[in-house]
Amino acid sequence: MFSSLHSLSSEFWRSRYVPDAFAMVDPSVKKGQGSAGNERPSSAKRRQSPKIPSLQSDSSSLPADVLSFSVRVSEEENLPNTQNHQKGPETPENKTPGGCSSEVPVNPSTPSRLDICKVKNREIRKASLQKASEILRPGMVLLKNYISHADQMKIIKVCRDLGLGAGGFYRPCFESGGKMNLQMMCLGMNWDPEKKVYEKRRSVDGAVPPGIPDEFKQIVKRAVTESHALVKEKHRKCNPEDRIPSMQPDICIVNFYARTDNLGLHQDKDESKESLDKGLPVVSISIGDSANFLYGDDGDAGKATKVVLESGDVLIFGGKSRHVFHGITSILPDTAPKALAAEANLRPGRLNLTFREY
Ligand SMILES: O=C(O)CCC(=O)C(=O)O
Ligand SMILES: [Fe+2]
């Protein structure tokens, strides 16, 4: 997957190297450590840092729980004072939906019944204003608000459990040695961002990736069928299978973006030639905070189109859009559905699952 990352604008590329990347799940990194500001760490500094801090820092050698709210305090303490972490003036992008953040309980693990009701009513109002699903370009469909609250809860729970075990979340490195600004785990097969290949075991620690749960596969199947219905509605005469071929996912890459994380523009093209030639789609599920997602025909972020992916959205790109460049420029703080964040005890940030067939 993530190929052509070097074609990013230098500003966006620099923004991938925020010091918080080290602090998020690594208790051994103390407050104030790391480079100041948005500077890419010096190569010496990069060499010194352990390759997979989240795995090595934990005394049990297992990954830390990157999804849980309980680790939020140490994360907040470690936030460096950069623009990225300041809320700044209220803009359409950082505005809390419904302007309700002050009414939400400070500790979401203990919301009152009244709080839950207020939050649920607000979310119902919000849902009625929500945008409709759409075809973004040939072969690329966005299903808005597609995954139910109950299914989002299940996905979070499964990812949390799997993320804590062998083959769970870690912060991978690029070929260059720089760390990615997200936590990742793979299901089915491991994708190695350094070698840009899929493998049975991840070479970083020898772990065998857990399998993809059947429930996840069912959700993917239903989403592709739904995308076909949408295509059929717009283009009555076409065979939707030609636009978005059906697929049987055997790979799922799970990313967790903390609020300052991001992912540069890239193409997903490490799947087999056969799969790519057929245009078998990538099916991407977003949960938690919303994100600015860019997509376009080349790696130039200035020319790309932006769409906001919200919790429960499913984005599908296959066929003519299988090689679309795409990336996440930012996570929009405090935009996760409040009821979901509270019920799941979800840490601020965004969970993303991309399903592919090798
Ligand atoms: O987080 C996203 O929406 C995109 C993730 C992605 O592009 C990838 O995992 O290859
Ligand atoms: Fe991708």
Which terms summarize this structure?
five-stranded antiparallel sheet, binds 2-oxoglutaric acid, binds fe (ii) ion, alpha+beta, metal-binding, 358 residues, disordered N terminus
What is the number of helical segments per DSSP (H or I, 4+ residues)? 11
- Strand arrangement across the biggest beta sheet: 2-3-12-9-14-7-4
Shape descriptor = globular
Distance between the termini: 11 Å
Structure notes:
The protein is of the alpha+beta class. The protein is 27% helix and 20% strand. It is built from eleven helices and 14 strands. The strands form three sheets. Strands 2-3-12-9-14-7-4 form a seven-stranded antiparallel beta sheet, with helices on one face. The longest helix has 21 residues, at 214-234. The chain is globular, with a radius of gyration of 20 Å. The protein starts with a strand and ends with a strand. The structure holds 2-oxoglutaric acid (AKG) and fe (ii) ion. The site of 2-oxoglutaric acid has 13 residues, from β7, β8, β13 and β14.
